[in-house]
């Protein structure tokens, strides 16, 4: 009887083992299946291709910058020597002045008034010379004798923007001394460059200053403002 039971038991055990291996049942089958799942890469799900508008739009939270406003064409003055720079500055024209000059001196400083015409690409260095003009009546004529004394020389930056040039305000006349202001480029001015005579504003003039012609290369403009009581000097 014991002999007949042993083969049955072995057959049942082998059958159970075969069924376990085929069905994946049991602890060994669970670990093997779990490891296989963890090693197998997950197949990516297809993503929709971005639309042209979405791909060209700015990222969230970022404000796209506006296109720069169109600017006027400019002229570079880098590398110009004094004669060429003088010609350029004297050739600048303005659309709102009767004499059409865009760079000019008046009694309160140097101005650039291009008014939407071609500006320089960069600030242009221009020199300003200020001279005290002591006035005394000539003994042998009805006119005045003038004596110059330098006050200061400075270099200012002209352009590209319009307006009064920073640092160009001249000193005020005092006593019997007026002020001659000269804008120029190139070598510094010396007394021999200055005019030998000056005129005063007319009695009926609304201006208390006059333009002056300084005959020297590189001079751009000149203005003389006499003292308020010049006729009593």
Automatic annotation (TrEMBL):
Residues annotated as signal peptide: 1-21
Record keyword Signal present: yes
Keyword terms: Signal
Residue numbers spanned by region Disordered: 30-77
Compositionally biased spans, kind Low complexity: 52-66
Protein name: Lipoprotein
